Each structure stands twice: as C-alpha cells, then as structure tokens.
Automatic annotation (TrEMBL):
It comes from the Bacteria. It comes from Metabacillus endolithicus. Residues 8-67 form the CBS domain. InterPro entries: CBS_dom, CBS_dom_sf, Lmo0553-like. This is Cyclic di-AMP binding protein CbpA. Keywords: CBS domain. Signal peptide: none annotated. The keyword Cytoplasm does not apply.
C-alpha cells in the first residue's frame, strides 16, 4: 500500500508562501480555521515546513514582533514529509504528534498532505466500516503458524480483512477478522465453534453495517 493512494491532493490543500508576512500568515490561518498549514516556495513546488498559529501569536505577544516580519524564522517541522512511493504504514512511524505530513513526488515537489483523518480512513477500511461485515476479535496463545491455523479454520468464509494486535507478545495475541457481511447468524455460530475447537477464543463479535 503506497502513500500516493491515500493523501489530500495539493489542489485541496491550504498553504502559504514563504514570502508571507506574519500578519498575512496569521490572517490566513484565522480565515481557514487551521492551527497549522504548510509553507511553500518556488511557486508552490518546494516544501519548507509548517507555520503554526500559536507561534505567530507568541511572536506578537511574547517577542513584540511586527506584523511586517517575515515568517521564515517561525517555520517548524522542515523534515515533516514523506514520499508518494513510500509505504503508507511509514506514516504511523512519522506522523505521531504532528498535525499532518507533507507528501512529495519523486522530483521532491510538494504534492499534498497526509492527515490523521487519512490514517483513520485506512483503519476504518481494515475494520470493514465502508463495506460492512462481521468483526470477530479472536484471542490465541502465541505460537508459530497461529494465523495460518486461524485462516484454515474459516477457509470456507470470505475474509474481507485481517488485523493482528499485541504483536511481539510472548503469550497472547489478538486477531481481528472481518468476515463477509452476508454471514447468517447460524453460519456465524458454526464459525465460532470451529475456531474454539481449534483452541482460539472469540472474545467479541461486532456487526458493521454497510455505509
């Protein structure tokens, strides 16, 4: 899964140019309602970093800054970017406390941003929030081939998605299975029994309606 399939395109991103003054940037942040936006240069091609509303306010209030001052000294997070061809899951390691990440193409030009909302969309898709389905949370003692055994036990059911948790735990692992939404209650109970006969423990069952 690549970043290029899951980000906000540049045409839909609010940003300011590095040539903006403190007042221009502050007014634009107030207008857009964002607490931070990307800063670009070279006619919007080159990513410079983020400008935060809080830093603009600090410049005014705490440092007696002028409205005509340039924003360049206030730009933060110059390295907060990721490439279109990077693995989407790299964003989990990179974004953390940042409001978003800039996305660059192979020419290192600004292409857009990836947000926490984009990440949530991917997770929702994994949980079947868009397609609907039955989510089984299955607990198992950690052992070699656990996932293979689980998939084999439900091989006659269409698996829409699979997510593992507690990876690296020496004793227990939780696996979330997203099964076809057309699964009847009778068939579901057979699946649960089959899993429990294989020493898996079904800890919760959730039906997700199709959006």
């Amino acid at each position: 899964m690549k970043v290029r399939y899951h980000y906000v395109q540049k045409a839909d991103v609010k940003y300011c140019d590095i040539s903006c003054t403190v007042k221009e940037a502050y007014d634009y942040l107030k207008e857009t309602g964002y607490r931070s936006i990307p800063v670009l240069k070279n006619e919007g091609k080159t990513f410079i970093g983020f400008i935060y509303k809080v830093h603009l306010l600090e410049h005014y209030v705490e440092h007696n800054g002028k409205e005509s001052d340039p924003i360049e000294p206030l730009v933060q997070n110059q390295d907060a970017y990721i490439y279109e061809e990077d693995s989407f899951f790299k964003t989990f390691l990179t974004i953390r406390r940042l409001p978003f990440l800039a996305v660059l193409n192979e020419e290192k030009e600004f292409s857009g941003i990836i947000t926490h909302s984009n990440i949530m969309d991917v997770l929702e898709d994994s949980f079947g929030m868009k397609t609907g389905g039955v989510l089984l949370t299955v607990g198992t003692k950690e052992h070699k081939g656990a996932i293979k055994d689980l998939v084999t036990a439900v091989k006659d059911i269409n698996i829409e998605g699979l997510l593992t948790m507690d990876n690296g735990d020496k004793y227990i692992r939780r696996i979330i299975l997203n099964l076809s939404g057309e699964l009847s209650e009778k068939k579901l109970q057979k699946v649960i029994k089959k899993l429990e006969d294989k020493e898996f423990r079904v800890t919760s069952v959730d039906r997700i309606d199709h959006k």
